[in-house]
Amino acid sequence: MALQQSTHFNSSYPWLRRCWLIALIFCLGCCTLLLQPTVQAAELSAEQVQQELDDLDSRKLTETEHATVQQLLEQTLSWLKTRDDYVRAQQQLSQQLATAPEQIRQAEQALQRFVPQSAERFAEAHSNQSIAELEQALEQTNQQLNALQKQLSDANSLVITTQTRPERAQAEVTSIQARIQEINTQLKAKEAAKTSSPERQELLQAELQAIQEQSKLRRAELDANNQLQELGSVQRDLYRAQLTEVEQQVAVLQELVNTHRQRESQQAVEELSLEISQAGTDTLLVREGRLNLQLSDYLLMVTERRNDLTQRNLKVRQQLETVQQTDQALEEQISVLQGSLLLAKILYQQQQALPSVSFDRTLAEQIADMRLYQFELRQFREKIREPERYVDKLLGVTSDPSENAELRGKLLDTIKTRNQLLDKLSKELNALLSEAINLQLNQKQLKNLSDSLRATLAEQMFWIPSNKPLDAGWLQHFPENALKQLEHLPLQAAWQGVWQAWVAMPWLFIGLAAVVVVLLALRPKLNAYVKKSNQDIGHFRLDGQLHTPKALLITMLYALPVSLLLAGAGWGLGYQAEGVNRYLGEALLVMAQVWLVFSTLARILKPHGIAEVHFRWLPSENTFARKQVRGLLVVMLMMLPVVIVAQYQPAILSEDVLGLSTMLVGLVLLSVVMTRLILHSYRGSAPNAFKRFLGLVVAMAPLGLVIATSLGYYYTSLKLTGRLFGTLSLFVVWLVLEATVVRGLAVAARRLAWQRSVNSKVNQPHESSEVPEVVAEPQLDISQINEQSLRLARLILWGGFFISLYWLWADLLSVFTYLDNISLYQNTSGSGDAAVTEVVSLRDGINALLFAAVTFILARNLPGLLEVMLLSRMKLAQGSSYATTTLLSYCIVATGTVATLASLGVSWDKLQWLVAALSLGLGFGLQEIFANFVSGIIILFERPVRIGDLVTIRNISGTVSRIRIRATTITDFDRKELIIPNKVFVTDQLMNWSLSDTMTRLVVKIGLAYETDLVLARKLMQQVLQENQRVLRDPEPGIYFTGISASTFDYELRYYVRDLGDRSSSMDEILTRLVLVFRDNAIDMAFNQLDVFIKNQHSETETHLASTQLATDAAGSPASEPPRTQSRA
User: Fold this and answer.
1) What is the DSSP string of 29-64?
2) Which CATH number fits domain 907-996: 2.30.30.60, 3.90.180.10, 3.40.50.2300, 2.60.40.10?
3) Does the reported pTM lie above 0.70?
4) What distance in Å separates the CA atoms of residue 989 and residue 1005, rounded to the nearest whole number?
5) pLDDT tens, residue by residue, 546-573
6) Buried b (16+ CB within 10 A) or exposed e, 469-487
7) Which of 321, 533, 818, 935 could form an S-S bond across to 982 if both were Cys, CB 3.0 to 4.6 Å?
8) What's the pLDDT tens digit per position in 860-884?
9) CATH T-level topology, domain 1000-1081
């Protein structure tokens, strides 16, 4: 009756609520009868519809019409089958109700007359039976036990069904009423009758008849609900009592069987011992007798082992049967109760009743040893299969015939006894092997089933409310309920548990107290050591990488005394304790860990502490963070006992007003402290918007738990709060480790720089010494070493953090499979008989979002990380790393897109029409875009151009700076970025100046005057080319006399440079040097000359103005200077 009353804890008068629900459903049933169609159609028969379905092929219908009519007729048959099932269920219910009063009377009488037989009397009644009779009785009792377990499961299912039937029937009858009204409207509509086919009319009529029978069945069940509930309750009590008695009988019978086996084995050992004592002094006979005795001892050991395995196997089978029944009833309970508070209480009880499976991992080795011994026994039996020959072989060395006759007879008796022993041993060993194999299989099955059931229970308990939602009534009765709970707090039991642990193991508490005293006494020395160590920080010779780990260890020693006291108290409470004391002990152990982590962090942040001296964090920021960390520690210590104890006692959550109020207050304070820590403006660091948003979401998580707790999800909040505390502790450890690693790398980089400086001074030659020039070995830049090491270290730390985070949350990840039950929409793939309907659940939607987020993160960060960690260390050609990372980004995006669409149920048969449409669009508007995309793929694979190449295309020259899907970016010499479609690089003529080699040739043209000394000029030009460091010696530069122009001798200087960047610089340097050298050696570089003749018509003379003179006049020469003239007659 306790289970029945738990469904009505919301009301003080449960019978009044039940009567009201029954009356309401009766009224709904009457309304359903009034809504019947005015003209009842003839009742359909399954034979008639089946005949129509068989004659369908003879009707001349199109393929589409044939498929539609066939589907309608098949649905009609399904509804008619459902109608017949409801009719049969009504008949069975009528039969059950007819026999229910008699069954109730018989069960009550049987329960009143039931007096359990004591185990002693039952054992005495079967003590004189043989082992065969005992084994037969044991088999029959086991069959009776299985039948009772099945009957008890049926009775429990009947009780649960009847307790929840009024609520379920109300919703079901309401939906039936609405559907009946809808069908009647469709059947009576004239326009619908004209347009709809006869098959659809038959479908509606079949559905109407089926739900009408369903309504009748539900009304009949409601009428008989009280009687069925009484029947189930009485039968359940009777079956429980009988089951307890039968389980006891099974244990007694098994013990009797084991005793008989043990007795027989001991008797065999005693007989063999007596034979050995009577054997006399003959060595051969004594040896063979002792061998028989060894076999008998092994037989006794095998018998004892078999008895032990049989007892264990019996216990495991009983547990397995109980778990199987629980598993079979669980699905029905979940579907019937559907997230109610009664379901929560039932699930809590079932979780507590689950057995703790102790899996014997040595069974596999024992089975292998037994099989090996079986093989040895078979070989041994083969040796003595013919006793006479075996005895003759033994007596072959004996010479006295008269003595051999007597000895032969005794040996034959010994060998025959051995054969009997081997038969018994082989039989017992086979039975032992069978028991071991069965035990191993049962243990595996029990473990798998228990784990599956435990996961299902955890999943359901996580997603269903454990308490009623908080309302004004809860606040009104809070003082009264809180005082009542305070009166029943197990403080005295907790103190007794600690005292019992002290009495049992006082030396442990004395040693713990001694350690605490020693730590407190060492604090002055630790302070002095830390002060001295802090003075070495920053000194390039005294500072070391071990200074910070040592300081952290000493800081942990400061926080260790309180942690040891909490851990000792927790261990004392949990020592050989059960119930609340064990949970309080576990809570104190967790509190010790939290105190050690956050108290250490608070000491790290103190003035002149590790954060300020070692990590170089700002003192003002440390003071603010230390205050918040202390507040966080207080809040966590306040909430941890509630989180641990209440989480392990879910059955009492509805009465835990103190714990619930503590959770609400603690979560609000936790959110305030975390928000202050995250939103505080820290100088020297500027987190991006995404990190700040993520931190704010984490800070607001406690407020979400407050809302969940207020709505009744108290158990869910407890589970998540415990994981949140673990996550915070893990993040603190990661933060300290990361800061320690960064400081260690900084110290290493500083020492490396100092060592290089010392080495350079040592290796520097003195001024007086004549040392040949030594080429220095190229070394990696110190900043580059530190940056790469820091990236690698942070990558390892982040990897460890996420692995630890997964380990922390792993047991809760399975609860999210519950989201599979929440359907978003359905997808139908295929057609006809191959059509498959797939349900896309809320979990699939969340997985799609996760896939999209992971794809975005990987596509954005993984290529760059790969380039830094791997590609930068490889000797790749120019642009190869960019091509690799770009292709990797494409692959990541493609894989993520496919995974995201697959999670949403978008398969290829859905995408093929989209692909066909895109293909059509590619032939028209998207042709150029697709061509550019394919060209971009060709460029990345074929690599006619790479990042950093100097190219010329369509009179455009510049450096390739970016290659994208559609276009490539070229930066010209004016630093303007030109976007060129990828198709141009594939289809047009392209000049790549640095595709295979960056070596290029330059041609400098020089014009010399006619009066120039050509030999000297050639020598000077060769000298200029040889002096320039940018000019390559191989290929050798050349000087060529290319022609004689109107005013000059034309020369070309042809030379090569290594890099493209040397072209302009080398030409500038060479031309400048040539001009200077030519001037110094009076060599004229000719230019075009112009002779002007001025003719005087009066005197008939001519005046010649040289080009130099014209240039001077044009530049504004003084008028007093006469021009140079040349007269011609």
Assistant:
1) HHHHHHTS-SSPPPPP-HHHHHHHHHGGGGS---HH
2) 2.30.30.60
3) no
4) 28
5) 888 888 999 899 889 999 988 888 887 7
6) ebeeebeeeeeebeeeeee
7) 935
8) 766 666 665 565 556 655 555 666 6
9) Alpha-Beta Plaits (3.30.70)
